[in-house]
Design brief:
Helix content is about 55%, strand content about 10%. It is built from 21 helices and 13 strands.
Length: about 575
């Protein structure tokens, strides 16, 4: 039940009843409704100012006339205040109808079929082969995972793509180092760390003997040519890297439908280059072939370098057309840091200039800010690197120490610590607008008070505890027990949860769900402290338990959508 939509329908009925012959009345009433800043001013307010021109009447007079035709059981009363029409919902009916609607399919509250019949591709995480998964990959991974879950929840068919960084001369150097100084068993056991050691060794040796650089380039040429030995080692490096990465992905609850990376699109770039030539879009510049974007006030997009090879922009263009042909997407989202904004604007514009109108609405760069760790920015060359697996492990250890202190007798403490520790990191990443920079601090992330992941998880566990204690034979609920201000504030937030999910999907902003879920948790705790949930009034208890059940499920859904677990005991 969407109370906002119900009020909008009521306003529409009032308008047509009061002004049956009026022309030019707004159709989307819901978009005009406001939530008053003070509860004493009502639950919803309709500003009549935009009706003045169509009705040729002052807003206060319009509000007064509309109030005279208001008659709906959902509304307890309607008041005129200046040019506003303030609606006060019938609290008992509101509680009954909303909880009934939620409990019909509690795990589906907030879902919709907005995306039915549509497909969205999501390009996220995109780790580099032979490199460890570090904190800099956290945002793209958890934002992308959350968006995939949100789009799924809204009825879309989703395709999660991990566009691996697996092309370039560095892989020839890696193979060269492995052939000279490597050992298969050492790589199998040491994984990415051993490959990194070999790569560092290559550069150390190349400083002594520059000819080794030529050997590295020769091995990459063998990869380009499809040499059997080079390709076998190259594919093995990818398998070892993904095996290491899976430890992190499993902890984060992240999965993908495709791991097609840069190397996958190398042999698909001819289609792009040939089409650009056929459409006379390629211009020679200093030996390179470019697409001129001066009219769009952007630098040119390089397609073929002066040495005749493709560039990552060429491979990204090839990927766009492959994905369109393969998945027939309606949207393709690129969850990549904001520093790549120009790159995506260039390639999206190239596709558009090629005559593909779907590029305008179908291709979206979902940008995000930078991540720092306790005041220090990530800088690989300076050694300021926090590896994600280490961070997740440390977070679990810290969470376990807190649980041992607060709940020493808790069963399955290690599993709960895992859910809380990992959840704290994800929650911190998705707590604010994605474009904001994040500075990760332990004392904030793992705090059980305030707006944190552990706080929301603990609220869910509190609800579950009350549900376990509730009598099994409660009578029919008396919704009069939920007419107090605390219960109504909570119910209103529950009613708006679907709106938050929908807006989160439309704006590609998971933090809207994080915020909505957190506000529900805060409102429930206020209700919990102000009112006894279980008492002698069995019918009132039944209503409060039903509200608790709805809250527990909506919090669980909200946490799931952002990729966080909801422990039942903490």
């Amino acid at each position: 039940m969407d109370m906002k939509q119900r009020i909008a329908e009521l306003v529409s009925e009032m308008l047509h009843a009061a002004y049956p012959d009026a022309q030019g009345l707004p159709e989307d009433i819901a978009s005009l409704l406001e939530v008053p800043p003070e509860k004493s001013m009502g639950d919803y307010a309709f500003p009549c100012f935009k009706l003045s021109k169509a009705l040729r009447m002052g807003p206060p007079m319009i509000a007064k006339k509309l109030s005279e035709v208001a008659d709906k059981p959902d509304v307890a009363r309607v008041e005129c205040v200046g040019g506003y029409l303030n609606f006060f919902v019938n609290r008992e009916n509101f509680a009954r109808d909303l909880l009934s609607a939620i409990m019909q399919a509690p795990e589906k509250w907030g879902s919709s079929e907005e995306g039915k019949g549509k497909t969205v591709c999501l390009d996220y995480s995109s780790i580099n082969i032979a490199k460890r998964f570090h904190l800099g990959h956290l945002s793209t991974t958890v934002i992308g995972n959350a968006l995939k879950r949100i789009y799924d929840f809204q009825g879309w068919k989703t395709v999660g793509i991990n566009h691996l960084g697996d092309w370039g001369t560095q892989f020839g150097k890696m193979i060269c180092a492995y052939k000279k100084w490597g050992d298969k068993e050492a790589v199998e056991q040491g994984g990415v760390d051993e490959m990194t050691r070999l790569y560092v060794r290559f550069h150390e040796e190349a400083e002594k003997d520059p000819a080794i650089e030529d050997e590295g380039r020769a091995w990459f040429k063998r990869i380009e040519d499809g040499d059997e030995e080079a390709m076998a080692i190259f594919q093995w490096f990818k398998e070892v890297t993904l095996r290491d990465a899976m430890k992190v992905y499993d902890l984060l609850g992240v999965s993908f439908d495709s791991y097609a990376g840069e190397s996958f699109y190398v042999d698909k770039t001819d289609r792009v280059v040939n089409e650009l030539k056929e459409k006379n879009m390629l211009i020679e510049s200093d030996g390179a072939l470019i697409v001129d974007l001066e009219e769009e006030k952007m630098p040119p997009c390089i397609v073929i370098k002066s040495d005749g090879t493709t560039i990552y922009a060429t491979r990204d263009l090839a990927a766009i057309f492959y994905r369109k042909d393969t998945y027939n997407f309606d949207k393709c989202l690129y969850v990549v840091a904001y520093q790549q904004d120009l790159h995506f604007r260039q390639i999206f514009k190239v596709v558009e200039k090629m005559g593909y109108d779907w590029a305008k609405e179908g291709l979206t760069h979902v940008a995000f800010g930078m991540v720092s760790y306790e005041g220090q920015a990530m800088a690989t060359r300076k050694g300021h690197v926090v590896y994600l697996e280490d961070l997740l492990q440390r977070s679990q250890e810290k969470a376990l120490a807190i649980i041992n202190e607060k709940s020493p007798n808790l069963e399955n403490k290690e599993q709960v610590a895992k859910e809380v520790g990992v959840g704290a990191i994800i929650y911190t990443t998705l707590q604010n607008n994605r474009i904001k920079d994040i500075d990760f601090w332990w004392d904030r992330a793992l705090n059980f008070e305030g707006e944190t992941g552990p706080y929301v998880q603990y609220t869910h566990a509190r609800c579950c505890s009350l549900l376990r204690k509730a009598p099994a034979d409660l009578p029919a609920p008396d919704y009069a027990a939920l007419t107090n201000d605390e219960a109504q504030a909570l119910l209103l937030l529950l009613s708006r949860f679907p709106e938050a999910v929908s807006e989160s999907c439309q704006r590609n902003e998971p933090f809207l769900i994080t915020r909505a879920t957190t506000e529900i948790a805060k409102a429930y705790n206020k209700f919990y402290y102000e009112h006894r949930i279980l008492d002698e009034d069995q019918a009132g208890t039944a209503a409060r338990i039903q509200l608790t059940q709805a809250v527990s499920q909506v919090i669980k859904t909200g946490l799931y959508l952002i990729g966080v677990s909801a422990p039942e005991r903490m």
